[in-house]
């Protein structure tokens, strides 16, 4: 007797399919197994799945095969490559009745379908690129779920499409970006020859390039396609100026209406390049936890922006300043645990040597002017020393037995508050005395930490559930100019991300420059295929964590 569960046969005394057994045994012995020239990749998950299923065929249903083929062909909507999931072979052969094929080929195709599902479901859930090795992940045994169990459940419920869809990031922002990607694909194949980057075109000018500028802005949805009201398409009129300013704002440029080098460079980016940036962002979404938290803070490094979300609703949005390209802000998630009002700033050793020492040597009054104290030693045994007694010219990387500590005050580099989530990168959110920099369109001026505009608004939201804390109390504590640490009633998740594309609250697709040149390497891995790749999950020597690379 046999028990039928959906399309999965659970054997009681059913003989195993010897062709499937042979292939699984070959994989378990470490041999690469190929089906019609396409390598099976999900070795452990395939072994576990077929072992639990008595080594019986799993894809007898033509309907379920059709669902999987459709899902594989639509993988590009998620920025994934259908070729990674045997798309050409499955589409060309597998919809024919299995009786058309030999016993060996039936076993091959069954394994190929299972491998396609296991790899696609794994990539949907946690991404194709392993952020810890910066290489494509060709196993199906990553964190969070056993993918062989996901496959078994999908087959039992006869719902391949719904199962795969449920593995995508649930946040609406991911779905919106997928939809925007689909809309952008309509521009593929459109002529997009480079526009000359000079001279700048100003409102009221006449320029031969404006006819092409109009066409592109119309294709991008910035300019209405209604009959033109201008006398000459080469004239820079008010309607075109408004469209240019919308385009500039959507690309993180100064929305001044001047069609200069930066604006023309952005207009010259071909649609397929924009799609690649979207694909990189979709992949980074898949690296995030399945739940960001009921309440969380999210920083987009490339967008120079912070937002706070409570129960799915955005309650705060602020501009931020991030690390310079040579001192990049890392990507990671943590939890804000406490705030420090009127903080001191203990200068990190690298900054003491690379930044502070040259300034001290140039300006004898530098330390006193910025209220920086000098200490010999560390911890409870450190002793304060007179800066005038230090032989500063003799100090270097190998000889710097001091700490520099900036006392609280209006010139403190951290401003009047910092938001702490202790981490290996020594990165946190904080105020700044240099508030004028927030008016810049591109704001990469820090040494890695994140400076927040109007930080006390963020403090007020974080302390909303804390007893006896109000905006008035915050202002009073700050005015006292004494350090005070406040532990949050509940730590709040903070996600520091690097997204060069997203859909804003008004439904507009936004793009930003690849500030740290992180997208290109990630896109290369997304575009790479499994065939011929023998590295599998092997880290590259010298590669750091994803936070430093992607």
Automatic annotation (TrEMBL):
<protein>
    <submittedName>
        <fullName>Peptidoglycan-binding domain 1 protein</fullName>
    </submittedName>
</protein>
<dbReference type="InterPro" id="IPR038063">
    <property type="entry name" value="Transpep_catalytic_dom"/>
</dbReference>
<dbReference type="Pfam" id="PF20142">
    <property type="entry name" value="Scaffold"/>
</dbReference>
<keyword id="KW-0133">Cell shape</keyword>
<comment type="pathway">
    <text>Cell wall biogenesis; peptidoglycan biosynthesis.</text>
</comment>
<feature type="active site" description="Proton donor/acceptor">
    <location>
        <position position="430"/>
    </location>
</feature>
<dbReference type="InterPro" id="IPR005490">
    <property type="entry name" value="LD_TPept_cat_dom"/>
</dbReference>
<keyword id="KW-0573">Peptidoglycan synthesis</keyword>
<comment type="similarity">
    <text>Belongs to the YkuD family.</text>
</comment>
<dbReference type="InterPro" id="IPR036366">
    <property type="entry name" value="PGBDSf"/>
</dbReference>
<feature type="domain" description="L,D-TPase catalytic">
    <location>
        <begin position="295"/>
        <end position="477"/>
    </location>
</feature>
<keyword id="KW-0808">Transferase</keyword>
<dbReference type="GO" id="GO:0016740">
    <property type="term" value="F:transferase activity"/>
</dbReference>
<dbReference type="InterPro" id="IPR036365">
    <property type="entry name" value="PGBD-like_sf"/>
</dbReference>
<dbReference type="GO" id="GO:0004180">
    <property type="term" value="F:carboxypeptidase activity"/>
</dbReference>
<dbReference type="GO" id="GO:0009252">
    <property type="term" value="P:peptidoglycan biosynthetic process"/>
</dbReference>
<dbReference type="Pfam" id="PF03734">
    <property type="entry name" value="YkuD"/>
</dbReference>
<keyword id="KW-0961">Cell wall biogenesis/degradation</keyword>
<dbReference type="GO" id="GO:0008360">
    <property type="term" value="P:regulation of cell shape"/>
</dbReference>
<dbReference type="Pfam" id="PF01471">
    <property type="entry name" value="PG_binding_1"/>
</dbReference>
<feature type="active site" description="Nucleophile">
    <location>
        <position position="449"/>
    </location>
</feature>
<dbReference type="InterPro" id="IPR002477">
    <property type="entry name" value="Peptidoglycan-bd-like"/>
</dbReference>
<dbReference type="InterPro" id="IPR052905">
    <property type="entry name" value="LD-transpeptidase_YkuD-like"/>
</dbReference>
<dbReference type="GO" id="GO:0071555">
    <property type="term" value="P:cell wall organization"/>
</dbReference>
<dbReference type="InterPro" id="IPR045380">
    <property type="entry name" value="LD_TPept_scaffold_dom"/>
</dbReference>
């Amino acid at each position: 007797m046999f028990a039928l569960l959906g399309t999965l046969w659970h054997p009681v005394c059913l003989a195993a399919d010897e062709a499937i057994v042979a292939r699984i045994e070959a994989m378990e012995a470490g041999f690469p197994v190929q089906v019609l020239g396409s390598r099976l990749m999900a070795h452990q998950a395939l072994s576990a799945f077929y072992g639990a299923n008595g080594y019986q065929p799993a894809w007898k249903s033509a309907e379920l095969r059709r669902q999987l083929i459709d899902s594989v062909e639509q993988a590009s909507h998620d920025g994934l490559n259908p070729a990674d999931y045997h798309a050409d072979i499955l589409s060309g052969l597998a919809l024919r009745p299995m009786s058309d094929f030999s016993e060996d080929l039936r076993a091959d195709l069954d394994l190929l379908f299972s491998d396609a599902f296991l790899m696609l479901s794994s990539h949907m859930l946690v991404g194709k690129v392993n952020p810890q090795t910066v290489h494509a992940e060709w196993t199906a045994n990553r964190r969070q779920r056993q993918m062989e169990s996901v496959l078994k459940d999908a087959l039992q419920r006869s719902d391949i499409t719904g199962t795969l869809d449920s593995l995508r990031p649930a946040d609406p922002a991911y779905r919106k970006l997928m939809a925007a990607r689909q809309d952008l694909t309509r521009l593929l194949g459109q002529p997009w020859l480079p526009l000359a980057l000079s001279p700048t075109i100003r409102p009221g000018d006449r320029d031969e390039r404006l006819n092409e500028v109009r066409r592109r802005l119309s294709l991008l949805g910035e300019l209405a396609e209604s009959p033109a009201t201008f006398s000459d398409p080469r004239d820079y009129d008010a309607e075109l100026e408004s469209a240019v300013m919308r385009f500039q704002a959507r690309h993180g440029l100064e929305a001044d209406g001047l069609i200069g080098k930066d604006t023309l460079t952005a207009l010259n980016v071909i649609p397929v390049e924009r799609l690649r940036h979207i694909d990189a962002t979709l992949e980074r979404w898949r690296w995030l936890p399945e739940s960001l938290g009921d309440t969380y803070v999210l920083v987009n490094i490339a967008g120079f922006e912070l937002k706070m979300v409570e129960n799915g609703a955005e309650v705060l949005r602020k501009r931020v300043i991030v690390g310079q390209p040579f001192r990049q802000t890392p990507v990671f998630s943590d939890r804000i645990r406490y705030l420090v009002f009127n903080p001191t700033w203990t200068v990190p050793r690298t900054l003491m040597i690379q930044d502070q020492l040259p300034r001290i040597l140039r300006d004898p009054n530098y330390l006193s002017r910025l209220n920086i104290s000098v200490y010999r030693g560390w911890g409870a045994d450190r002793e304060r020393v007179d800066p005038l007694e230090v032989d500063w010219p003799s100090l270097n990387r190998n000889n710097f037995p001091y700490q520099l500590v900036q006392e609280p005050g209006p010139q403190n580099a951290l401003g009047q508050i910092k938001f702490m989530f202790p981490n290996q990168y020594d990165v946190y959110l904080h105020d700044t005395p240099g508030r004028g920099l927030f008016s810049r369109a591109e704001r990469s001026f820090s040494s890695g930490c994140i400076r927040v505009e109007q930080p006390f608004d963020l403090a007020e939201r974080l302390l909303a559930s804390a007893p006896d804390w109000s905006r008035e109390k915050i202002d009073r504590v700050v005015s006292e100019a004494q350090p005070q640490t406040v532990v949050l009633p509940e730590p709040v998740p903070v996600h520091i991300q690097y997204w060069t594309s997203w859909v804003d609250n008004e439904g507009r697709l936004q793009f930003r420059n690849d500030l740290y040149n992180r997208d290109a390497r990630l896109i290369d891995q997304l575009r790479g295929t499994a065939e011929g790749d023998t590295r599998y999950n092997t880290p590259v020597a010298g590669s750091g964590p994803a936070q430093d690379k992607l």
